[in-house]
Write a structure and sequence with these properties.
Structural class: alpha+beta
Order of helices and strands: HEHEEEE
Low-confidence stretches: 1-6, 109-115
Strand order of the largest sheet: 1-5-4-3-2
Strand content: 15-25%
Largest sheet: 5 strands, antiparallel
Number of strands: 5
Number of domains: 1
Helix content: 25-40%
Amino acid sequence: MEHFVVATMQDEALKALISDLGEGIVIDAELLEGCSVAAHDLDDMDAVQAAEVAAHVFTTLFETKVSEQTGESAEPEEGEWSGVVNGFRFVIERDGDGDLVVDFSDAPSGTTGDA
């Protein structure tokens, strides 16, 4: 029971951290250090590679082990990729400056936020 309580508290803390810091994260070469996808490959990545990038960013910034990563869509021509890391939705897209930015949210996959 104690392990469950601690795990629940950690989950809530992670949700709060994602809520506070999980948006507008610029994916640069420094952040990608150690990632299996190189910075020069980002524009052409598929959904699986996008999930690898998102998982790497998630682990690096939130110091949390990734147990689940799924790439759901890849639209390189539009500059948009999406999927799920540890139950958190991610979207990678280009910002107004042309940088790739990842946003994490607690919203389940496939929701529009109108529910």
